[in-house]
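pipeline stage [seq->struct] | target=Serotonin N-acetyltransferase | organism=Himantopus himantopus | residues=205
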Amino acid sequence: MSALSALPFLKPVHLRSPRSSPGGQRRHTLPASEFRCLSPEDAVSVFEIEREAFISVSGDCPLHLDEIRHFLNLCPELSLGWFEEGRLVAFIIGSLWDQERLSQEALTLHKPRGTVVHIHVLAVHRTFRQQGKGSILMWRYLQYLRCLPFARRALLMCEDFLVPFYQKCGFEALGPCEVTVGELAFIEMQHPVRGHAFMRRNSGC
């Protein structure tokens, strides 16, 4: 059984019923809201959202287009996209890591035997910001990770101004991250994936 088939909260959420056409035939419409893992075919849409979200703030993107394709080919099951009527509006991309803390290699490598999920990027399309979508998507992603038997912790690195956002999502700061990108420095944050027995028992996993 695939990881996705065991996860009821990742199944498409159909908020709109198929409508009937004047001739009486049912006309199918896209679901109003859907959460699913991303595929390499989503890479361009992902990059367009990421580029707009990050370049204006930091001058660079966490992942370039070829790196997005790289991770969506190697570990699409560690990504999650939020689609509204078929349009990508927010996403998370992760990979596996096999050390306690992140290093420069973690930016480009996927360690299939790792137990740490490195969250590379979370971004929301500019039209849908300030609506709480980032927090909702992260919550769903963490619920999803709890259903993956190999996942033990989630790690990410962020700039100082984003620390309060991730703390509200349940992450704790570990201190300065070893990784640097140009002149940018980061705080490393973690979230335990295991140790939530009650939530796992009630998550449908």
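stage status: PASS
auto-comment: The domain at 33-199 is CATH 3.40.630.30 (Aminopeptidase). DSSP finds five helices and nine strands in the chain.
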